[in-house]
Design brief:
This protein is α/β, with parallel strands linked by helices. Helix content is 40%, strand content 17%. It is globular and about 60 Å long. The termini are far apart. The structure holds 4'-deoxy-4'-aminopyridoxal-5'-phosphate.
Length: 431
């Protein structure tokens, strides 16, 4: 039955009655969306919003080329991953082609969670160890194992999991972060060994999104990687957030850090909104795992999702989105830095490519996180027609992470409106 006759409030009530009663919907007044195209999203109320948040649609909402590819493939062949399908093999080859040579095999999954879970299973199987290390406030997925490895989601961190202090360079400085990922890592590994779990892998989101978006410095993860390899473990780069050109200049976040990961997990933006994810890794690791485990994932690498993923990758390469993202990202960051000079509540601005974090604080010297003000800004931006979100331990970091096709004009629009929203809030610098 169509539900268009319900009011927005009735839809919220219906949502709460059908899903968990506290299931999250963004914003003080949750948005009821109707359609979208490119970087624009249209509400049922007739309002149009600039999407400065969604990385699930890197080449834009309802991108006509992607829609065409999905429809064509759905009308031709969309089946089970145990048949041979040339399209899927072509895409696997194209995807692997974006990685350094040592990462030469892939395994498809349906979600970032499944990709991480597969990578962890490969690591455990290869090392015959069960101990894992993650960064604090990391988020890596929804399964039981990944919940344990996701301190951001309140994961319980099982007995076989160690959590490093965060990569928060704003609060700990470069030296502090380096220590967390060297001395801290070594201690964690030693502890796992002494407790009998042994060390299987370090799993890192290469942009530290949920922890608060930390693109710099780019030296400490390579030190961590050395320790991981000296200890016989694997380095798993979680590229669910950072991958597919998000950070400008390069395709993958780990490349900014000069890393040689053993396994890379990816998902979210891969198929412009369709469930599609993967692990890419050293061929011998993937071969050995599949030999032992008979891993099978019914819908992974299905034709329709892969045809969307292939179109996304082609657009990223054809339209040189790595360069575009770099250029627009620098423009955005420059504008945000200017705002920091005018608004005292901005304690820090950081970013790479089209992934920016704006740290909202109540006291710049003490770097006191101000969640309330950050939420007021995010809600103020929605009211002025811009979608953003928040991240970090205290939810005080405003997250700007738009589709990759965002333009400089779109970035200016965000900056102008952010300026207005901040001006209306108290504690403006010099006031
Ligand atoms: N890793 C990271 C870094 C993520 O941000 C997420 C999702 N936000 C995941 C893994 C899990 O991906 P999915 O929701 O597709 O399972």
């Amino acid at each position: 039955m169509p539900t268009v006759s319900l009011t927005d409030a009735e839809l919220q009530t219906k949502r709460r009655s059908l899903f968990a009663s506290n299931s999250l919907a963004f914003y003080r007044t949750p948005l009821v969306l109707e359609r979208a195209e490119g970087v624009w999203v249209h509400g049922r109320d007739g309002r149009t919003y600039l999407d400065a948040y969604n990385n699930t649609v890197p080449v834009g909402h309802c991108n006509p080329e992607v829609v065409e590819a999905i429809c064509r493939q759905a009308a031709t062949l969309n089946t089970h991953s145990r048949y041979v399908h040339e399209l899927v093999l072509d895409y696997a080859e194209e995807l692997i082609g974006t990685f350094p040579e040592h990462l030469n095999k892939t395994g498809f999954t349906c979600s970032g969670t499944e990709a991480n879970e597969l990578a962890l299973r490969i690591a455990a199987s290869h090392t015959r160890k069960t101990g894992f290390v993650v960064a604090n406030f990391a988020y890596h997925g929804t399964s039981m194992l990944l919940d344990d490895l996701s301190p951001f989601a309140g994961g319980t961190s099982g007995a076989n999991v160690r959590v490093l202090k965060p990569a928060d360079v704003y609060r700990f400085g470069e030296e502090g972060v380096l220590n967390h990922f060297t001395e801290g890592l070594q201690e964690a590994i030693d502890d796992l060994e002494s407790k009998g779990f042994g060390f299987a892998a370090l799993l890192v989101d290469t942009i530290f999104e949920s922890g608060g978006i930390f693109p710099h410095p780019t030296n400490f993860l390579s030190s961590a990687e050395k320790i991981v390899h000296q200890s016989g473990g694997l380095f798993i780069a979680d590229e669910v957030q950072a991958g597919f050109a998000r950070l400008g200049e390069i395709m993958w976040g780990f490349q900014r850090h000069g890393l040689t990961p053993d396994l890379v997990s990816m998902g979210k933006p891969m198929a412009n909104g369709l469930p599609c994810a993967a692990v890419v890794g050293r061929g011998y690791l993937i071969d050995a795992f599949y030999d032992k485990s008979h891993y099978f994932n019914t819908f992974a690498g299905g034709g329709t999702a892969i045809s969307a993923a292939q179109t996304v990758l082609n657009i990223i390469q054809r339209d040189r989105l790595t360069e575009h993202v770099q250029e627009v990202g620098e423009h955005l960051l420059f504008g945000l830095m200017r705002l920091m000079q005018q608004h005292e509540m901005i304690g820090d601005v950081r970013g790479a490519g089209l992934f920016a974090g704006i740290e909202i604080v109540s006291d710049r010297d003490a770097k006191t996180p101000d969640n309330k003000a950050a939420q007021a800004v995010v809600n103020g931006l929605v009211e002025s027609g811009i979608l953003t979100g928040s991240a970090g331990e205290f939810g005080n970091i405003i997250k700007i992470r738009p589709p990759l096709i965002f333009s400089k004009e779109n970035a200016d629009y965000v900056i102008e409106n952010l300026d207005e929203v901040l001006t209306k809030l108290p504690r403006k610098l010099g006031s």
